[in-house]
Design goal:
3 helices, 4-stranded antiparallel beta sheet, elongated, 340 residues, mainly beta, 5-stranded mixed beta sheet
C-alpha cells in the first residue's frame, strides 16, 4: 500500500513538474513573440516574465558558440536585425529547459524619409538584366545576370550601344560590380568567386574566392579603401581590396522599427552606403560604421511603371555628381533624380 501511495505521489509530482515546465516555456515564448515586432535597442534589458524568473536558478542566452548570462542587449553578442538565440533556463532543481527565439535589435534613431524629384531620363536597354551599375565620367559600367547571358559591359550614358563587353561562361550568374582605379571587380551569384577585369580592355586579370562567411554574391561597391559586398542577408562585408578573399569586418543593418535582409545592389557615396532591398521599391541610406539606416527612399512611383513580374525590379544605383541615377532589371529607362 505504501509503495502504491509513493508511486502515485511521485507521478503527481512529476506531472506537476512537467506542467510547470510547459507553463514556464509557454510564458517565455509568449513574451518573445510579443517583443519580436517591438524589438530592442542596444543597452536594453530583457524584462523576462516573473513566471520564468521565479522558477530559474540561472538563465543564459547562447548564440551558437557564444553565451552570456547578462539579460542585456549587448553589442558584444547581439547584432542589429534579427538574432537567433537559445534561452537556457537552469531550474532550482538542476534541470535545464531550453527554448529557441528570435530577438530583433533596431537602430535607436528613426531614419529620415528622403525625397527626390526626377530631373532627367535616359534610355536603357530593356534586355539588360541589371545586377551592377556604375557611372564614371559619362560611361556606364553594367554587370548583367542570368545563366547563359551574364556579362559585363560599358556604354555612354544616353545611349544603349555597348562600347565593350565581356561575356561569362554559361554556368555563371553575374552579380554586382564596382570600379577600383583601372580595374573592375565583379561578383557572381553562387559560384563563390569574383572576377577582376582591366577597366579599358575588359581583359580578365584574375579571379578571387569569397570569404567563407559570404554564402553568395549580390551587391558590390568601393569606399576608397575596402570593397563592400552584400550576400542577400542583413549583413554587409568589408573586403580587403588587395585580397578580396579576406574579410576586414562586417556590419548588420536595421532601421528604427524594421529589420532588413536581402540587401542587394550597393553604392558608396559621400560617406554612406546606399542599398536597395531585393523586390522592394526602396533604397536605404546606411551608416557604414554602425549599420544603422539613417534614411530611406521610396521609389514606388517609378518602380510600378516597370515591374511586370518578380524579376523586373529596382536594381541599379549610382551617382552623377550629387544626383542619383536609378534603374532596374529589364527597365527601358534610367532616371536621374535630385535628392531634396
Amino acid at each position: 500500500m505504501k509503495l502504491r501511495i509513493f508511486s502515485a505521489l511521485f507521478a503527481l509530482i512529476f506531472l506537476f513538474s512537467c506542467n510547470n515546465d510547459k507553463e514556464v516555456l509557454n510564458t517565455l515564448n509568449d513574451y518573445n513573440l510579443s517583443m519580436e515586432s517591438k524589438g530592442y535597442h542596444f543597452g536594453d534589458k530583457l524584462d523576462l516574465p516573473a513566471k520564468v524568473l521565479e522558477n530559474a536558478e540561472s538563465i543564459t542566452i547562447s548564440f551558437g558558440d557564444k553565451e552570456t548570462d547578462k539579460l542585456v542587449v549587448d553589442p558584444k553578442f547581439f547584432t542589429l536585425g534579427d538574432n537567433a538565440v537559445t534561452f537556457n533556463i537552469k531550474k532550482k532543481g538542476g534541470e535545464i529547459l531550453t527554448q529557441d527565439a528570435t530577438i530583433n535589435v533596431f537602430a535607436k534613431n528613426p531614419e529620415a524619409v528622403l525625397t527626390y524629384e526626377i530631373v532627367k531620363e535616359y534610355p536603357h536597354d530593356p534586355n539588360n538584366f541589371v545586377q551592377g551599375f556604375e557611372l564614371e565620367g559619362n560611361t556606364i559600367y553594367e554587370s548583367e545576370g542570368q545563366f547563359g547571358e551574364s556579362r559585363i559591359l560599358k556604354y555612354t550614358l544616353g545611349t544603349t550601344n555597348a562600347l565593350n563587353e565581356a561575356p561569362q561562361a554559361s554556368d555563371v550568374f553575374s552579380e554586382g560590380c564596382t570600379i577600383v582605379g583601372d580595374k573592375i571587380y565583379q561578383l557572381t551569384w553562387r559560384n563563390k568567386k569574383g572576377f577582376i577585369y582591366d577597366k579599358n580592355s575588359f581583359k580578365l586579370l584574375s579571379e578571387f574566392d569569397y570569404p567563407n562567411v559570404m554564402g553568395e554574391g549580390w551587391g558590390l561597391t568601393y569606399d576608397g579603401k575596402n570593397l563592400i559586398a552584400s550576400d542577400g542577408t542583413k549583413n554587409i562585408y568589408f573586403l580587403d581590396v588587395n585580397d578580396p578573399s579576406k574579410m576586414v569586418r562586417y556590419i548588420s543593418v536595421a532601421g528604427n522599427t524594421e529589420a532588413y535582409d536581402q540587401l542587394n545592389e550597393l553604392e558608396f557615396h559621400d560617406g554612406f552606403i546606399y542599398s536597395n532591398v531585393w523586390q522592394k521599391p526602396i533604397i536605404l541610406k546606411i551608416d557604414p560604421k554602425t549599420g544603422e539606416i539613417v534614411g530611406k527612399f521610396d521609389f514606388s512611383e517609378i518602380a510600378k511603371k516597370h515591374e511586370t513580374d518578380n524579376d523586373s525590379v529596382l536594381n541599379g544605383i549610382t551617382f552623377k555628381g550629387e544626383n542619383m541615377l536609378v534603374t532596374g532589371k529589364n527597365w527601358p529607362t534610367i532616371y536621374e533624380v535630385k535628392i531634396k
